[in-house]
Amino acid sequence: MQTVLLPSGARIAYDDFGQQAKLAVLLVHGHPFDRSMWGPQAGYLARNGYRVVVPDLRGYGESSGPAVGGLGDFAEDLVGLADHLGIDRFALGGLSMGGQIVMQTVRDHPERIAALLLADTFAEPETDEGKVARNQVADRVLAEGMTAYADELLPKMLSAGTLHENLEVTGHVHKMMRGAPAAGAAAALRARAKRPDYRDSLKQVSVPTLVAVGSEDEFTPVSDARLLHQLVAGSELVVLDGAGHLPNLERAAEFNDVFGRFLDHAEER
After folding, report:
1. Which of 19, 52, 137, 170 is exposed most, by the fewest CB atoms within 10 A?
2. pLDDT tens, position by position, 7-62
3. Low-confidence residues of the chain, pLDDT below 70?
4. 149: Cβ–Cβ under 8 A, 6 or more apart, which residues?
5. Pairing of strands 11-17, 2-5
């Protein structure tokens, strides 16, 4: 683990795997997780010649700094980290909230992005009811901490098969959620409540794009992934059978194979 203090005042913890023999890949975790959620992908891609950078978002894991005011703050942190590492263009992937941060980043800095992964995420802005709900959850985790919230989320995050049959993944996901800093999680919830509509900017994306989703995802169903696929011309859509909201962990080998082949083809373009 390494850290960097960015001009924003954020101190970002990150892992930097492999050498840049191929395209650099930057992976963005979701809420309420940390960089360890990308462990299977980081190891697999590094072994196959990619440089893989996996940060904790500001306020999560071992990263800290001023509370984010919007998803644009996360995007600027990612670009600042890439600048620090001397990485000009990179493949950028994110899951759930991480996917929305990816959409924000490619909207604000399209010249930096060579390829995209949008996993288990959606592009629409928050509804009025959703804004109220996210801010209420933010208030709750600040008052109560993350334990009860994480306990309630766990069965919705994973497919029933994963939850009952893969105790290693279930334990890892539960540990990440329970260990997330409440202040960072609350700030991110409020930031997501204010997120813009990414549909129009996705129509402008011209780099290779992979859209992935678990077939049993309760939060972002396959219909959300199909919309992303329609918005990004020439994108590839993959549905990972039997996975819930975290197919990169629930179906790691299959996810790695699909993502690795996608990056290999993106390198050829």
Report:
1. 19
2. 999 999 999 997 767 889 999 999 999 999 999 999 999 999 999 999 999 999 99
3. 20, 268-269
4. 32, 137, 140, 141, 177
5. antiparallel
Judge whether 157 and 174 are in contact, CB under 8 Å: no
Between CA 34 and CA 24 the distance in angstroms is 20
Coil/strand/helix, residue 211: strand
113-127 as b/e, with b when 16 or more CB fall inside 10 Å? bbbbbbbbbbbeebe
Q: CATH assignment of 2-125+195-268, given 3.40.50.1820, 3.90.1030.10, 3.40.50.970, 3.90.930.60?
A: 3.40.50.1820
Q: At what angle do helices 97-108 and 182-193 cross, to 10 degrees?
A: 60
Look at residue 150 and give its three-state secondary structure.
helix
